[in-house]
Amino acid sequence: MEHLHASEAQRVILESVTTRGTESVKLEQSLGRVLAIAISANRDLPPYDVSAMDGFALRSADVANAPSTLKIIEDIKAGDMPSKTVLPGQCARIMTGAPMPQGADAVIRVEDTQEVSASSVQIGKTVKPGNDIRLQGEGMKDGEIVLQAGTEITPGVIGVLATVKAARFEVYRRPRVAILSTGNELEGMEEQVDPNKIPNSNSYALMAQVQALGIEPVLLGIARDDPLELEKYLRRGLDFDVLLVSGGTSVGVHDYVRPTIEKLGVEMKFWRVAIRPGHPLAFGSTVTTAVFGLPGNPVSSMVCFEEFVIPALRRMMGNPRLYRRTVMARLGHPVKFRPGRTEFIRVQLTHDAEGYVASSTGSQSSGALMSMAKADGLLVVPSDSTGLAAGERVTVQLLDGTVFQDEMGFRE
Ligand code: AMP
Ligand code: MG
Question: What residues are neighbours of ligand 2 (ion), with CB under 5 Å?
Answer without folding.
Answer: 183, 247-248, 296
